[in-house]
Amino acid sequence: MPVLALIEPNEELSLQALSLARDLGQPIHAFAVGEAHVELGAYGVQTVHVAEDERLSAYAPAAWAACLEQLIDRIEPTAVVAAGTSRGNEVLGHLAARRNLPFAANCIAVGSEGTVTRVRWGGSLLEEARIDSELKILSVAPHMVEATTVNGGVANVETVQANLDDGEFVVRVIEHAETRSAGISLAEAKVVISGGRGVGSADGFGMLEELAGLLNAAVGCSRVVTMAGWRPHTDQVGQTGTKVAPDLYIACGISGATQHIAGCKGAKKILAINSDAEAPILASADYAVIGDLAEVVPAITAELRKAQSS
Amino acid sequence: MRILVCVKRVPLTGGKMVLTADEQALETRHLGFTISPHEECGVEEAVRLVEHHGGEVTVLTLGPAEAEEQIRDSLANGGDRGVHLVTGGEEWDPQATAAAVVETVQEEEAAGGGFDLIVFGNESADAGNYQVGIRAAYALGRPIATGLKGLSVEDGRARCEQEVPGGRDIYELPLPAVVSVLEGINLPRYPSVPAKLRARSKPVESRSPERPAPKLEKLRLVVPPGQGKQAEILGNGPEAAPAVVDVMRDLGVT
């Protein structure tokens, strides 16, 4: 039975979704907006359906879902899959609402008889669930499934003549406002230094900034810190903040609530600096220094300066 | 403006996930509860809009009897009245949740006039289904924008901002509309003691809807592997600094 996959423009996570799509059936049909992706053949896609409608040049979730609906009628797939991105989950939510069908968000595996394993609590807990419907609608949790290639050739490209009512474009991006970012971003930095309640105050982040300057690191924080107003929410690492995946994550004065771990567990190594040797963060960290971070962090900064100048 | 904001009671999970013996729920005997974070910001956003434009904020929750605590917390933070759909504590799947919300909206609107705006959190902290608001919007025939980090209302339209790589995407929705918001759209206030006292006497109406059979059925919960690593202690206090720098050098990040 065929499977239909939503491919977002320039989205690596869509390729990860294709790996799970291949576990659901074949051939794989992909729906892409705007561009023909013949290279998707390498990921097992047989046919790429490209929607060409001037109005689709700006993102409109209902219109994307309407395109998927028309393809469902034509291809009659057993499942519709997308990456668990903001847009992937949104478009599948629209599709599920339009068809009044269940939708399982952020799956990491599929089993027999409509069973899936999906993430809860930002990945801190897994759920085995059953989708009770003929057509399975599901998204794939980011960075939980590897994007693998198969011995596929070049994918066929077919143009979709989507018949879209103007009503599908009521909710549509009408403007994109650029924001200039200062310094290195949390998502890109090789080293992230985060502070929690233990930093004590907004001013306390000065010593973290100083160490970050030497390592070209980004400074993050826990939810406690943003709720206290010490740092902006854009600095928050966690389930409701940014998810990071640096080579080294340094957690200073962070207890290690699951809310926070959900945001930093993608790090290659985690170093915890904490005055409490029993703090839960130690169960998620690779290395730890036990002590007052107000003494430990400046000592690391001094030691690093010495090492860098020699 | 008349605004409805939907909130969910969720446990404060702390450092470790522990399941009940039947693997159907988190063991919450030793845990506190809170409003799911995105929704806490939803309440604040609704209250700010009403402070600016005038009107009324109704807070709706579907949850066990104890979820009245989350309604009262929302009323302490500026909500005017609550509606509590009381469950027996079992989970409702997203389709059933959305249907119960829609039924309540229709009843409330028939009795007290239409809601200009219905506010959801983008996804709940626990189940994370990412869809209840969208389903409700479709059933009510209203536009929806999700994942908002900015919201303002003027001339019968809602200007909605999403954070995307490199900037913000802007949408404009005609009211009445549905929105879902993310934590960070605002910094929720802490309730004052008098506000908490006032919240106790604000009206909360409860109803007991029937739970339909789930279409997305939870079979069991599983704690993922990897919980309970043992960190290598590099040292105590500032004397550990050279060992930390050695680790940084080994990782190639110095």
Give me some keywords for this one.
heterodimer, A: 310 residues, alpha/beta, Rossmann fold, nine-stranded mixed β-sheet, 26% strand, B: 254 residues, 31% strand
Topology:
The complex is a heterodimer of chains A (310) and B (254).
Chain A: E1 3-7, H1 12-22, E2 28-33, E3 45-51, H2 61-75, E4 79-83, H3 86-99, E5 103-110, E6 115-120, E7 125-131, E8 136-140, E9 156-160, E10 175-178, E11 191-195, H4 205-215, E12 218-221, H5 223-227, E13 248-252, H6 258-264, E14 269-274, E15 287-290, H7 293-309
Parallel strand pairs in A: 1-2, 1-4, 2-3, 3-9, 4-8, 5-8, 11-12, 11-13, 13-14, 14-15
Antiparallel strand pairs in A: 5-6, 6-7
Helix pairs in contact in A: 2-3, 4-7
Chain B: E1 2-7, E2 9-11, E3 33-35, H1 37-53, E4 56-63, H2 68-76, E5 81-86, H3 94-112, E6 117-121, H4 132-140, E7 144-154, E8 157-164, E9 167-174, E10 177-181, H5 193-200, E11 204-207, E12 216-222, E13 232-236, H6 241-251
Parallel strand pairs in B: 1-4, 1-6, 4-5, 5-11, 6-10, 7-10
Antiparallel strand pairs in B: 2-3, 7-8, 8-9
Helix pairs in contact in B: 2-5, 3-4
Describe the protein's architecture and organization.
- The complex is a heterodimer of chains A (310) and B (254).
- Chain A has two domains: 3-169, Rossmann fold (3-Layer(aba) Sandwich), CATH 3.40.50; 191-309, 3-Layer(aba) Sandwich (Rossmann fold), CATH 3.40.50.
- The termini of chain A are far apart.
- Chain A contains seven helices and 15 strands.
- Chain A has 310 residues and is α/β, with parallel strands linked by helices.
- Chain A is elongated and about 65 Å long.
- The model of chain A has no long low-confidence stretch (mean pLDDT 94).
- In chain B, helix 2 (68-76) links the parallel strand 4 and strand 5 (81-86).
- In chain B, 29% of the residues lie in helices and 31% in strands.
- Chain B starts with a strand and ends with a helix.
- Chain B has a single domain (2-251), classed as HUPs (Rossmann fold), CATH 3.40.50.620.
- Chain B has a nine-stranded mixed beta sheet, with helices on both faces. A two-stranded antiparallel ribbon of chain B has the order 2-3.
- Chains A and B meet through helix 3, strand 5, strand 6, strand 7 and strand 10 of A and helix 3, helix 4, strand 7, strand 8 and strand 9 of B.
- Strand 10 of chain A pairs antiparallel with strand 9 of chain B.
